[in-house]
Amino acid sequence: MTNQNQTPASKMPEVETVPTAWQRFKDTHIWNSFIKDRVAQISLTIFMGYVIMALFAPVIAPFDPYDPTQMDIMNSELPPSWDEEMGEEQFWLGTDAQGRDLWSTILYGTRISLTIGICAVLLQATIGIIVGLIAGYRGGRVDSILMRFADVQLSFSTMMVAIVVLAIFQASFGTELYQDLAMVMLILVIGIAEWPQYARTIRASVLAEKKKEYIDAARVMGLGQIRIMFRHILPNTLSPILVISTVQVANAIISEASLSFLGLGMPVSQPSLGSLISSGFEYIFSGAWWITVIPGVVLVVLVLVMNLLGDWLRDVLNPKLYKG
Amino acid sequence: MTDQNTMKTTETDQIQVSESLVQIRGLYKKFNISGDFLDQLKFKGGKIVREQEFVHAINGVDLDIKKGEALCVVGESGCGKSTVARTVMGLLTPSAGTISYRGERIDDLDDKQLLSYRKKMQMIFQNPYASLNPRMTIAQTLEEPVTVHNPDWTARQVRDKVHEAMFSVGIDPSWGERFAHEFSGGQRQRISIARALAVDPEFIVADEPISALDVSIQAQVLNLLMDAQEKRNLTYLFITHDLSVVEHFGTRVAVMYLGSLCELAATKTLFAKPRHPYTQALMSAIPRLEDDRPQHIKLQGEVPTPVNLPSGCVFHGRCPYANERCKQEIPQLITTDEGGQVACHGVAEGRI
Amino acid sequence: MPLLEVRNLEVSFGLRSGDVKALRNVNFTLDRGERLGLVGESGAGKSVLGFSILNLISKPGRISDGQILFEGKDLADMSPEELRNIRGNRISMIFQDPMMTLNPVLTIGQQMVECLQAHRNISNENARTIAVQKLQQVQIPSPETRIDQYPHELSGGMRQRVVIAIGLLMDPDIIIADEPTTALDVTIQAEIMELMVELCERNNVALILITHDLGVVSQVTQKAIVMYAGRIIEQGPTREIINDAQHPYTQGLMNALPQMAIPGQRLNQIRGSMPSLQKIPTGCAFNPRCDYLRDACTKQLPGYTVSGNCKVACHMVAELKQAEQAPHEA
Question: Would you identify the family this protein belongs to, as annotated (chain C) (predicted)?
């Protein structure tokens, strides 16, 4: 036979051509469980719908809720357009107390809520990942100090920290300045209050990855600690990061809504979903239920969908349940 | 038979085994297993005392690894053989003792100072399923050490070097775009070897590189390691529990038991005439294909825990020849008539 | 009538990509007190065979053809009640990892007593006496105190002894041991193997030893089966196979052992690796790795040729035998 030309390829014939990234993705466990899981498909579709709503709010919205010239106090508290007695064709979800189109306001509110949620989680993740990586990789005293710090942070509830910080800020710098900086403040407060969630999860998976031989191999190669942490360990801890991120974004949106509801969040001139719910609350007994209920439903569906996605991801990425 | 013997002697003559590449002197390694400071505090006799417990993994090991040889370290699980390998590679810092490479101390260097040694010393790991980063392609895995050690090389030079390393272990360079999980255990182990060879090392520590592989694949990988040794004039520190591999592969053998060296000899000498009672027991336990193997030597009891080491010779509790002296005095390595070294009072006194 | 007879067994796994046959056309018999070795590399199907004898194949696997006759009765026809009576009682199984058998939160005694009471109507005291007796049989020192310990308090070797004692509890007719010593050190392995041979001989128990280690098979068993890619490729008396292997794969496997080579020389390696079950080559599954390749090997599944007391699945057996004898004559 052609034994003399022992090229490596002829020795191991079972590996064929290199698959493309898309073929590889189609072979993955994630894709396979996604095409089987109806709940995940619906959740992702709805979530993408929200993202599109948020991204293209200025295009979709018939009115600009931030433009006072488009508001007419005469139009205030109009019910949704399907109410034949009072509803008007141009405001299909009705209007709020200032006469703003509710649909447009919800679109912009979703945009604000999602922005705050995602940015706050990015901040949490950045702090948490750095702290978790260092604590897990260095171990020893560094680990103890950083983790005790995280424990202290965790022992204050997010809401308590947020309320205290935001209330002090509002009181000392005045409502004017506060309204200008509300979004940044919310992101900072929610971001800083919840980083230990990430730090703990990352640390746990770093401890597991650190024991594997490829980390020893990287050390033997002479790679620096920072490179090992970010190039070798971090990519292998992405699964748990992804799982908690979905849940954390949902949590951050809820926190923002709660703070806005308590009057510590977004100002009425730039309402998020939370402040919209809050502003409608005063009118709920005068019959204007839609100002509160419709943004409420929008918020609940968003959070529910994110949690369902998170659950699905957790099941898919859990190595204990993984059978492949 | 005579044919074989003459062949072997000429072979050993060719390898000049004189110059030490790596020197291990008085190596101790203990691991603290008593946890945090708070866990160490115990309440005893009305007082709070701080108590620490240690696993004594290595207890005073002296070894010279000579240029061009394959020094095999054998022993059962928990004997400290892997700890020796990891300490030599600087993955662990010794509790006491020194490690020198070509006469320069390397155990007290920091990461930066070690970098130039990392190029010369490489390691191959036991588990081919854990030793490759699952999120990196094969090409990325192999290119990384080359770029780290040759920062001024162009991308093309790096790629050529990697291709050369891949060819030398029999893997196709076109597989570079794939991830580790797409390969079988034997192929992954080849990739690990390629990673070690890519920086042109002169010394390789192999920590049980074939024990996770199937028999037919073991032979492939062992042959590959021998080819590499011949072509590149490599020196190996080969850690294994399998004595039949040692007989085939090793130039010299070091037998370890409970963190101490019991016997050190040229492979042929050791297999022809094992002196230490533990070596004898270990060798009699190899499952042989032949029908007429001698009855295996049964040891009494079990390996003691390395937390509370036995006094005297660590093997005395299980040794059929142990006497009072063995229980009290730690035996030192002595040179035997055959040229090997044994740490045993029985051999020293001529009892065994 | 043999104690156990496996006829034409086929086990399939239903995967996304279609049915995969993990075992094909497996035939063998086992007599009372006989020790049989199942040898093969990972993926050869030796563990699947062990599990299918107890009808323990879990989904998506199933026995898709053939029969497993225990004392002449097909296991497939048995009620779950009868099957339970056979599992653990008449046929017991020992795994590679003792912790698969031992429950970490129960003492050894509790587990042994529970096991005894599941199969027999017996008082606590009697069960404990039997348990101590079995622990004594597997040479565990001071069994009366050991019996009240938890599995984690024992060393690996001791745990495997306890598992063997549990396997022996019901005085079974067959013990299936799946790589029982792979996780243990060589000295312990030798002791445990010796113990198993002794116990099997004393109690007239048949043993099916699943292992990848030809040395162990050679030391322990009387009959051996070599498997490759889900098929038996050679079976016969152990000594005959070890001393005079017929199939090129068996020969290759043996020659690949370091103890068969001249020290310092290259080992005789088999090139390539075992095919995955989804991609078994047509014809003889071993053909891409075989040195004696002929046209027939890639086209036709080789049947079994009888050679001496062995059965070999290879087209080339006769030719190889001739070639082997020729140089001796010359």
Answer: Belongs to the ABC transporter superfamily.
